[in-house]
Amino acid sequence: MRIVIAEDDLLLREGLALLLRAEEQDVVATTSNPADFLVAVDEYEPDVAIVDVRMPPTHTDEGIVAAVEARRRRPGLAVLVLSAYVEQAFATDLLATGGARLGYLLKERVGRVAEFMDALERVASGGTAIDPEVVAQLLARNRPDNRLSRLTPREHEVLALMAEGLGNTAISERLFVTEGAVSKHIRSIFAKLDLAPDDRADRRVTAVLHYLEGRRV
Length: 217
Known about the structure:
This protein is of the alpha/beta class. It contains ten helices and six strands; from the N terminus they run E-H-E-H-E-H-E-H-E-H-E-H-H-H-H-H. Helix 2 runs parallel beside helix 3 and helix 8 packs across helix 9. The longest helix has 14 residues. The chain starts with a strand and ends with a helix.
């Protein structure tokens, strides 16, 4: 997998590159600002971009803006966004675009190599990866969607893991249940959230959006 990194912190940028190369990934460029990042995307045509949310010059949302522009220039580019702390709106906004090939992780997750690589591979293969801490903080919010109150405790657990971007197999392993049981819970979640089969919408993403939106301030 060809990877471009956009991170203004030198130590983290070089540490990421070393980690990924040790995992036999092809880091084709490392950049410290949005302009150089976009040049690298044009030049190297990566499969995945790892992008810091806050970059020069204002350290607000330059990374997000650059990631959106990179995906415009290179449709299908997988983007894994890194942030120093939870910025919940970004997680919801990522999913609102459809969620495909997008991830949002806290920087501390990089040190947990197996988890970080799992998230990176999920994003690269077309999935979604949302940091568990983001999900946990959203879960603590007290403005639930009324439809969410219909779910059983186990269905809430399944939906929370779906919000992290886990597939049925990973959910079954995390909860120590069969994949068949997970599929049954997901069908029940769709029914209780009034999500009928519809080719125009991804019910899995829509269910997660209900979950996240129901817990935003």
